[in-house]
Amino acid sequence: MSEIKERIDRILERIESLRPQHDCRLMAVSKGQSWERIQAAMDAGVSLFGENRVQECGQKWLVRPHQVELRMIGRLQRNKVKSAIQVFSGIDTIDRETLADTLDRQLADQFSVMIEVNAGEENTKTGMLPAVVREFLETAERWPRLRFDGILAMLPEARDLSLAETKRIRRLMQETAELWRICKSEGWPWAPLDELSMGMTSDFEWALEAGATIVRIGQGIFGPRQ
Ligand SMILES: *Cc1c(COP(=O)(O)O)cnc(C)c1O
To answer: Measured between alpha carbons, how far is 143 from 101 in angstroms, rounded to an integer?
Structure first.
């Protein structure tokens, strides 16, 4: 367990050195991890967690310390929405109108969500295409209980670390950050868009350079998933 703290400390140092203005947070992605390991991450000071399955998460996170924020980062089926709003403090994977409709209908109060963007326009990934994000947000006032707090970017995995591949992914990150800034600057009251959640274990340093405000790290903290 002490290696979890060491890894977290090392990642926080990298964040600090690339973003000394303290405007980026670390999300520990704890899918597939035991409660003991999650607790080790909390003890090391992590207060933001991400999970991708409603059921697994409900069983593991029976109690969530009040200072801990737990957000959904996996594809959400409409029949799981009801349980999801009980378990999570936010849902970062709004990628279609029907999901926003269902979610808004089930909620009693304001709830934090993010738009999931398929930055590389890959068939194998979920998320909205970048080209439709702005229009979606512009008309998002129709879901009065959803507060759009940010954009979660899904990026292609680098197939290799060639210069061309590296450049392509970094360019997609820059474009996504630009899209986020443009939408944020609209100042829509229902979409403050303070967060850009981008970057995982293999590419978080590039995401930090592009402007991410949340990096989502799983294996880099916990080691390989069980
Ligand atoms: C699993 C996952 C991560 C973390 O990936 P690692 O490579 O383990 O850092 C980040 N974001 C999403 C959406 C994920 O599903």
So the answer is: 7
Radius of gyration of the chain (CA): 17
Amino acid at residue number 106: Q
**Phi, psi (rounded to 5 degrees) for 192:** -65, -25
Give the CB-side neighbour count of residue 89, counting CA atoms within 13 A: 14
Q: What is the pLDDT of residues 77-129, one digit of tens each?
A: 999 999 999 999 999 999 999 999 999 999 999 999 999 999 999 999 999 99
What letter does residue 147 receive in the DSSP assignment? E
Q: Tens of pLDDT along 157-196?
A: 988 889 999 999 999 999 999 999 999 999 999 999 999 9
Dihedral of CA atoms 162, 163, 168, 174 in degrees, nearest 10, equals: 130
Cα 30 to Cα 218: distance, rounded to the nearest angstrom: 6
* 29 vs 52: CA distance, rounded Å: 9
The set of protein residues with a Cβ atom below 6 angstroms from ligand 1 is 29, 31, 52, 73-74, 200-201, 216-220
Specify the DSSP class assigned to residue 217. Answer: E
Alpha helices by DSSP H, 96-202: 97-106, 130-138, 163-185
Atom of ligand 1 nearest to the CA of 217: 9
User: Separation of 31 CA from ligand 1 center, angstroms?
Assistant: 8
Please count the other Cβ atoms lying within 10 Å of the Cβ belonging to residue 107.
16
